[in-house]
Design a protein that fits this description.
By secondary structure, this protein is α+β, with helices and mostly antiparallel strands. The chain contains five helices and five strands; from the N terminus they run ααββαβββαα. It has helices at residues 3-7, 13-16, 42-66, 105-119, 121-124, and strands at residues 21-27, 33-36, 74-79, 82-88, 94-100. It has a five-stranded antiparallel beta sheet with strand order 2-1-5-4-3, sandwiched between helices. A hairpin with a 2-residue loop joins strand 3 (74-79) and strand 4 (82-88).
Amino acid sequence: MTAEAADNSWMLELIRTVRGVRHVIVLSSDGLLRVRTEHTPPEVAERLSAACAGLASLGQGMSAEFGTGAAPRQVMVEFDGGFLFVRGAGDGSQLAVVTEHVIDPALVAQQMQAQVLVIGERALSTPTRTG
């Protein structure tokens, strides 16, 4: 994680404080960890980032096969003990949230959308690669 990513962790604290939220990260379009909350250990954030990159790729494939081919807006996985939400956060980046099972999924999805809008998609976006 870069120094810039560490400096931007404050952006995720608004989501982290929602009751039942366990981990919040932002990953780049190529699956690299960009930002994590202080409550998410680095090794957990790295594993989550890699898993979310795969999930986003699967969602893209599903969109190509059964939808319009556009990037999926949000992917949600329910597992025994909680939920994983992954949504676009600008220019290929993804905002990922892991929660406990006792949350309202609609509320978390709404908060994620609001957070992306408040922060601005440019603040969470993946920088364009040159060269």
